[in-house]
Amino acid sequence: MNMIARRKQTLLGSVCVLAVTAIPHAAFADQGGVSFWLPGAFASLTAAPAVPGWAYETIYIHLQQSAGGGKNFVTSNGVPGSVVAGLNAHADVLVQGVTYTWAQPVLGGQAGFTVLAAPGNIGVGIDATLTGPRGNTVSGTATDNRATVSDVFYQGTLKWNQGVNNEMVYIFGNIPSGTYDSNRLANLNYGYTAVDVGGAYTYLDPKSGHEFSVLAGVTYSGKNHNLQYQNGIDFHLDWGLSQFVAKNVHVGLAGYYFQQLTGDSGAGATLGDFKGRVLGIGPQVGFIFPVAEGYQGYLNLRGYKDFAAENRPDGWTAWATFQLSPAPPEPASAKPVVRKY
Q1: Is residue 166 part of a domain?
Q2: Residue 36's domain is classified under what CATH number?
Q3: Structural domain boundaries, residue 112
Q4: What is the C-alpha to C-alpha distance for residues 237 and 165, in angstroms, rounded to an integer?
Q5: What's the pTM?
Q6: Burial per residue of 107-140, b for 16 or more beta-carbon CB atoms within 10 angstroms, e otherwise
Q7: Which of 277, 269, 283, 273 is nearest to 241 (CA)?
Q8: For 214-249, how does the pLDDT look when each residue is reduced to its tens digit (9 = 90+)?
Q9: Closest Cα partner for 312 from 265, 264, 267?
Q10: C-beta of residue 257 within 8 angstroms of C-beta of residue 236
């Protein structure tokens, strides 16, 4: 059982560093009612320890969101403070990233660093463009579809393990890629920089197969100078609950809660504070399998349905995550006990 415990904690933990990813946040950025942080970026095994060394990760994300014509948003539409009524968006993104985990302890914990970017396709449609305090209609339906590349994202983590208890602190942010276009509705990046910090806890009991993870963080966003818009401070909580039904298979649920704490600001924030909120929940399943000598693969499939959304579009997202990482070392075989009489 000790061998199984060691294998689960190292193999499964090694996939968790990539759970926070370069995300296609419906691509009209916070001013479009969508945050820098994509809810659901973390699920199970968030703070579990990793296997030291290099890991490669690829994540496919499909996002489908909409808001009726009675809901207004400020978007990247070429005019600071431009307000649109009704919004539909879809995105298909393939995140690519690399992670390095240090073998040497840092502050008594395990340090890791990840860099990611995401090519993808984004489509946005609006019902009408509005202007003025009375919301006069100045144009009708508009659509925009674009194949582009996201910003570059970085993430640093520090993890600690005490038996079944695991803790983590992290920092996550973006480096603009230069592909943001304020004259277009469809963007896979933001037009500003942001930083997100937080902590996480994972309970992982190899004997019973029970697992629970929760991550909480806050996001500070810089100003989008093209649109004269700055998003407020956001709070988010992501969680995952799963059961190992076999040695290398776990199933369960995942969900999130997102709440904007402070209002949006700037000359372009023509809708006022515009504080957003959303909750979501959905199923998940994960598989661990050998790939080559010294390496292992991990595949996680999950999906979320939004509800209780306020000042942001809602819909659903689907995630397919694959990681190739070093396999944990096999435990040394026990030597036979030799007794002398």
Answers
A1: yes
A2: 2.40.128.130
A3: 2-326
A4: 19
A5: 0.83
A6: eebbbbebebbbebbbbbbbbbbbeeeeeeeeee
A7: 283
A8: 999 999 999 988 888 899 999 999 999 999 999 999
A9: 264
A10: yes
